[in-house]
Design a protein that fits this description.
This protein is mostly beta strands. Helix content is about 5%, strand content about 35%.
Length: about 300
């Protein structure tokens, strides 16, 4: 089948291995931090958790999420926020040092932690990653080479007023299962739907003629506004070999093309296409990316690639 013809036909406007660990819950002390603090008398050091105790290690995928919530001095006891950092050491250095985690290893969704409430001193380190904030709860992360421990803490600018009155705030570690065509597992999220609401999963869907494929591009944690986004396309015979991963999280084949681009905003970007008859046996690949200077690969934060099998 001529896939270049398929590409032209589809662009008809239709309207605008898993780690063997069990699930483990650990209480979160809302006053504990691996970040620098300043004039924060009740703040305490965060503990290092050995990855061996979680039944995981380098190269394996890990799901991290939270249950419950805490009180941060305002509102009610349901705030969710958590960040983590991998390390090749269990050492947490004295407060007052920005890089308190002695040997941090970058992974996951990079973010900037705020300066301290008192003194306005910097706390940010490049290696830690978001797990939960007000927009999203949970992340999938690949344990990086050399990692032996993980630290977790609420990313905050003042810890002394944090409490958990009902002691219900926990971090949950569980086996991670990557997508069929896994992206970089950072802030970029693609959702697709066939004549219905778009969803993250399943990442492999089927479409019959006279339906509409919808795609929406989201920033999971709301930290990528103003960056350039891309929506890319490829197509291959369903019974054949899919495009290769030429860069981390990027699939590129002979029919690769950029369908849409623009600036990331709070409103998800949208794209749709009408499925013409006569293309059964092909699979359409859609993948989104943000051009980001905080990307772990230095260039792109990519979503999982979704496969739409045409029937």
């Amino acid at each position: 089948m001529n896939h270049s013809i398929l590409l032209a036909a589809l662009l008809l406007p239709a309207g605008l291995a898993a780690p063997a660990l069990a699930q483990i819950q650990i209480p979160i002390n809302p006053k504990a931090s691996y970040l620098r603090t300043y004039t924060d008398p009740s703040a305490v050091p965060a503990a290092a958790v050995p990855l061996s105790a979680l039944g995981t290690g380098p190269g394996q995928w890990l799901n991290i999420t939270t249950v419950g919530g805490f009180y941060n001095g305002g509102g009610v006891d349901n705030v969710k926020a958590l960040a983590c950092v991998f390390s090749s050491s269990s050492v947490l250095q004295a407060d007052g040092i920005v890089h308190r985690v002695l040997n941090p290893i970058p992974a996951g969704t990079s973010f900037a932690s705020s300066n301290t409430y008192y003194g306005n001193v910097t706390t940010d380190i490049a290696e830690d990653f978001l797990v939960s904030n007000s927009l999203a709860n949970g992340t999938l992360v690949k344990v990086p080479p050399g990692a032996t421990h993980i630290f977790f803490a609420i990313p905050d600018n003042y810890y002394s007023h944090n409490t958990d009155p009902n002691n219900d705030y926990f971090v949950v570690f569980s086996p991670g299962v990557p997508a069929t065509m896994q992206g970089t597992a950072e802030d970029c999220e693609l959702r697709t739907g066939i004549s219905t609401t778009t969803t993250v999963t399943p990442d492999v869907k089927t479409a019959v003629p006279f339906t509409t494929i919808y795609a929406t591009i989201h920033q999971r944690y709301g930290i990528s506004a103003g960056q350039l986004y891309l929506l890319a396309f490829d197509v291959f015979p369903t019974a054949g070999a899919p495009p290769l991963e030429v860069l981390p999280g990027i699939r590129v084949g002979p029919n690769f093309a950029v369908l849409q681009f623009g600036l990331v905003s709070a409103t998800p970007a949208q794209w749709s296409v009408f499925v013409s008859p006569g293309y059964a046996g092909d699979t359409l690949i859609l993948q989104a990316a943000f051009l980001s200077d905080t990307a772990r690969n230095g260039l792109l934060v990519t979503s999982d690639a979704h496969q739409i099998q045409l029937l």
